TrEMBL record:
Organism of derivation: Nostoc cf. commune SO-36
Keywords: Membrane, Transmembrane, Transmembrane helix
Pfam families in the cross-refs: Sbt_1
Regions that span the bilayer: 12-32, 44-66, 78-99, 111-133, 225-243, 255-274, 319-341
PANTHER family: SLR1512 PROTEIN
UniProt entry tagged with the keyword Transmembrane helix: yes
The protein's name: Sodium-dependent bicarbonate transport family permease
Cross-referenced InterPro entries: Sbt_1 (IPR010293)
Length: 350
């Protein structure tokens, strides 16, 4: 961020960044896939359920906190919640690297929790936003409705309504007739778009290869040794991107700054608490608890923005992308990772 602030002309080509992200997520996917292949799947049930619940819960938190603040548009707040509920692959990669460096044990499949939090968050945000927009649209139509106006604009053929009983005589009846199938939110296209996103596609590909093939040799000779170096380059890119997004935050309400600082830590603490429940009931490791907390505190920087742009086109990208990239991600990495790691060590005595 300092380099960008000083006006450096350093540029990492987008193609290189995409390759780096692909390799990092492939490595995480391969790790998870190999672990799933060799593990007891019943151990994953509770962490997976908690990951899904967290993705949905985070969106509702934004809907009923951020959206209620002055000068914050509801649809922008919902989109922001969706982005903060979704997962940052780079933040998760950084957390796994720190855990490895501290020699803290965690389930190798912990990285596979990513899609179980990411997809529900994006789907929930888009569904809630569209329901809100449709309700707002119908409400506006109902306010301007009158039976006389409606009848004056209709050309009714003789005998169509012999008893005049089919005319919409109340606002509720009018609104119910306006609620067509086109206004209903279709969930599967959202899920499909999320799964087809570059980030999730790379991770799911890695998981599939790890489960169905035996990639240990290429994993040990190629993906694993390059992981830390590639991650360091991605952190540089993200820092420069974060600085560029700070300008966008100035265009929207200052409450986004407050939310971006508080939300990652709040989400992480909720996830840490749920992780501890899994720890005491199923033996989920303290390292796994840290991973769950970190991915909950993260906000999507790869797959989330294009998904939300397509699913909630009326939302302001300066609000949700600026809040996530400029402040949310640095907080999750710089504060969240050491905080939750230290908390786990204090509780676990390690």
């Amino acid at each position: 961020m300092v380099i960008a602030a000083l006006g450096s002309e350093l540029v990492i080509p987008e193609a290189i960044t995409q390759i780096i992200v692909f390799m990092l997520l492939m490595k995480i996917g391969l790790t998870g896939g190999q672990a799933i292949r060799n593990s007891n799947l019943t151990e994953m049930v509770l962490p997976v359920a908690f990951a899904m619940a967290l993705g949905i819960l985070i969106v509702f938190i934004a809907r009923y906190t951020l959206a209620k603040l002055p000068k914050v548009k509801t649809v922008d707040a919902i989109a922001t919640g969706g982005l903060f509920g979704a997962v940052s692959g780079s933040t998760m990669a950084a957390a796994l690297t720190v855990l490895d460096g501290q020699k803290i044990q965690y389930e190798a499949w912990a990285g596979a929790l990513y899609p179980f939090m990411d997809i529900p968050a994006l789907v929930t945000a888009i569904v809630i936003a569209n329901i809100y927009l449709n309700k707002k649209k119908r409400s506006a139509a109902g306010e301007s409705f009158s039976k006389q106006e409606y009848l004056s604009k209709q050309t009714v053929a003789a005998g169509d309504y012999p008893d005049q009983q089919d005319y919409p005589s109340t606002r509720q009846e009018y609104l119910s007739k306006q609620q067509s199938a086109d206004n209903r939110v279709k969930i599967w296209p959202i899920v499909k778009e999320s799964l087809q996103g570059s980030a999730l596609s790379a991770m799911l590909l890695g998981i599939a290869i790890g489960i169905l093939a035996q990639p240990e040799s290429v994993y040990k000779s190629f993906y694993d040794p390059a992981f830390r170096g590639l991650l360091s380059i991605l952190m540089l890119v993200m820092g420069m991107e974060a600085w560029s997004r700070l300008g966008e935050l100035r265009k929207v309400a200052q409450w986004y700054v407050v939310y971006s600082v508080v939300a990652p830590l709040l989400h992480g603490f909720i996830a840490f608490g749920l992780g501890m429940i899994a720890h005491y009931t199923t033996g989920f490791s303290m390292g796994g608890v840290v991973v769950l907390a970190v991915i909950a505190s993260s906000s999507s920087d790869i797959s989330g923005p294009p998904t939300l742009r397509a699913g909630i086109p009326s939302a302001n990208p300066s609000a949700y992308i600026g809040a996530s990239t400029a402040i949310g991600t640095p907080i999750a990495i710089g504060v969240g990772i050491p905080l939750f790691l230290g908390l786990a060590q204090a509780i676990g005595g390690g």
